[in-house]
Amino acid sequence: MFRLRHLFSLAALAVALACGAPAPAQTIIDEWSSVKVPPPPELKPVTADPKTTALLVMDLFKQICNTERRPRCVASIPRIEKLLAEARTKGVTIIYTLVPSLGPNVPAPVIGDTLPAVAPKGNEPVIVSFVDKFMLSDKDTGLGAILKDKGIRRMAPCFTPRARRRCAAST
After folding, report:
1. Domain locations in the chain?
2. Is 60 exceeded by the pLDDT of residue 170?
3. What is the largest CA-CA distance in the chain?
4. What is the pLDDT, as a whole number, of residue 63?
């Protein structure tokens, strides 16, 4: 009796799986030509309070932003330079980031590797981190303390095209 009950349960499960399984879906490659790209977002001017906003500048060093590997990054440097100049004039806090390593057997970038046109000036802070700008492994990067000490409540990220974003340098 015990075995027969298990046998019926297994048979019922097999029937349910066979009858209820949907037909295999197409792959994304099969559907690629039918996908509609959404329109680009509307760009709007913004106003930021320089006392409570920080500009977070990331990945603008020679190992990443160069004509051989990322020419669009190099092309964006004049606009980013203009944005940084305007931000400094208005007293916006500017914070730079570096990555601890670009891969195995690749030396970690140092702040001196930042492209000169967009390099830190004076005592602008520099943190070392990967994606999480507040923590590096189990260590605090110091970003939270910098933001708290300066009363910063908003950050505007400035990426290279490597991160598939451009700096909002059309100010």
Report:
1. 53-163
2. no
3. 86
4. 84
- DSSP output for 63-132: TTSSTTT-HHHHHHHHHHHHHHHHHHHTT-EEEEEE-S-SSTT-PPP-GGGB-GGG---TT--EEE-SS-
In this prediction, residue 90 has a pLDDT band, given cuts at 50, 70 and 90, of: very high
Q: Report the distance separating Cα 112 and Cα 115, nearest Å.
A: 8
Rounded Cα–Cα distance for residues 98 and 120 (Å): 12
HSE at residue 119, side-chain half, CA atoms within 13 A, is 11
Note the CATH number of domain 53-163. 3.40.50.850
Sign of the dihedral defined by the CA atoms of residues 82, 88, 93, 97, in that order: positive
Distance CA 151, CA 51 (A): 7
* Residue 121 amino acid letter: K
